[in-house]
Amino acid sequence: MFTGLVEATGKITALEPQGPGIRLVVDAQQLALGVNIGDSIANNGCCLTVIEVDETNLAFEAGPETLAKTSLGAKQVGDLINLERSLQVGDRLGGHLVTGHVDAVGTLDERLDDQQWSTFWFKVPEALTRQMAPKGSITVEGVSLTLVDVEADRFSVALIPHTLEVTTLGTLQPGDPVNLETDLLAKYVEQQMAAWSTDGNS
Fold first, then answer.
1. Does 24 reside within a domain?
2. In degrees, to the nearest 5, what angle opens at C-alpha 100 toward C-alphas 96 and 101?
3. Are the CB atoms for 110 and 173 separated by under 8 Å?
4. What is the rounded CA–CA span in Å between residue 51 and residue 183?
5. Same domain for 187 and 114?
6. Residue 20 and residue 10: Cα distance in Å, rounded?
7. Which of 160, 164, 137 is nearest to 148 (CA)?
8. Of 54, 85, 116, which one is at a domain's C-terminal end?
9. DSSP string of the chain?
10. What residues contact residue 156 under an 8 Å CB cut-off, 6+ apart?
11. Taking residues 115-119, what's their average pLDDT?
12. Are 7 and 85 contacting, i.e. CB atoms less than 8 angstroms apart?
């Protein structure tokens, strides 16, 4: 479980084919200190298991499902990636509950910059917007954000200068793919409403 508060950005140093999957190596700098094999790390919001630690380099394995359903399949050596270690019992929950299980890949549809501040509009599958509401939470590339406006197939977020500076969101341009995870509670509410609707019509 994660919070969507990015701890650091790492640089991809290797992408090695492994059968239908890949071995991904990320230079995590100081974040790697204290990380052990078997730990869970959110990579752009995608929960991956550490399989090797070599000084500041962390190695992960990503299978074909992960590569097909997340933005990790489009990454190249040298790309930056948002990193967050999993929650420990007693940690402050500064963002919102994030599982690290990506729901879909969206794209940056529009970027409106106003000096150091920005409003981003993301295009998404319509099924996801049913789990969104203004002032609710959304995870984009592993970053916990507050929804501003929600339309049938897109949503907007307002980004402060700090977020643009310390995460990979600041480098996004229209057309770029992003990992999306909707709010966990919204998923349960939608599931219960669908079950109630089915039971009520039977």
1. yes
2. 120
3. no
4. 28
5. yes
6. 24
7. 137
8. 85
9. -B-S---EEEEEEEEEEETTEEEEEEE-GGGGTT--TT-EEEETTEEEEEEEEETTEEEEEE-HHHHHHSGGGG--TT-EEEEEEPP-TT----S--B-S---EEEEEEEEEEETTEEEEEEE--HHHHTT--TT-EEEETTEEEEEEEE-SSEEEEEE-HHHHHHSGGGG--TT-EEEEEE-HHHHHHHHHHHHHHHHHH-
10. 119, 120, 121, 122, 147, 148, 149, 150
11. 96
12. yes
Domain count, the chain: 2
**Between 185 and 62, the higher pLDDT residue:** 62
Q: Is the pTM of this model over 0.85?
A: yes
Domain assignment present for residue 22? The answer is yes
Structure tokens at 48: 């991956």
The residues, ordered by sequence, that sit 6+ positions from 120 with a Cβ below 8 Å of its Cβ are 108, 110, 111, 112, 156, 157, 159, 169, 172
Nearest C-alpha neighbor of 75 from the set 182, 180, 181, 178: 178
How far apart CA 73 and CA 63 sit, in angstroms, is 10
Tell me the residue range of the domain where 68 lies.
8-85
Query: Among 54-63, 108-117, 191-200, which stretch is predicted with the lowest mean pLDDT?
Result: 191-200
Report if residue 98 sits inside a domain.
Answer: no
Is 2 inside a domain boundary?
A: no
Same domain flag for 79 and 113: no
**Residue 28 belongs to domain with CATH number:** 2.40.30.20
